[in-house]
Specification:
The protein is mostly helical. It has one domain (about 5-155). It has helices at about 5-20, 25-40, 50, 55-65, 75-85, 90-110, 135-155. The longest helix has 19 residues, at about 90-110. Bound molecules: zinc ion (ZN). The site of zinc ion has 6 residues, from helix 6.
Length: about 160
Amino acid sequence: MTSTSHVFIGAAGYAALAFHTPLPLSMAATTAAVVGSLAPDIDHPSSRVGQLLWPISYPLARLFGHRGLTHSALALLGLALAVVLLDGAVVTTVTAFAVGYTLHLAADACTTRGIALLYPSRQRFRAPITVRTGGLGEWALTGLILALAAASVVLHPAGPDLPWP
Ligand SMILES: [Zn+2]
């Protein structure tokens, strides 16, 4: 998936999830989710986050390859441990980041390339229906996810009474 799709999916997915759960529906938390939705591609020097943080991106790409460690269950386990072990207000930020991160991996699993979820095993995991990164299918899938996220809020019995400032 492209960075643009990840941003849309991360923001809409987190906002919809926060609407239905005790997660905070704040601009700060949604921003953390968006950052998390871009973070896994730090292992790709040509990605937006990879270009921004190239001193980290190049060694990661060389050591683990794209869609390797950063796109694996090990990375998710590390984030889960951080959520459990951290304390205070930072837990909210890390949780929102982890939601965005997880949405990134789920979105990449919907592409033909899939993800190495059980890294260091190189076996690729894919959703039953996949799309090509950057293709029309990606935009259709991103649009569908945005529509589902919006519908889950608008059609909720409580209505779209969003607590945005
Ligand atoms: Zn990715």
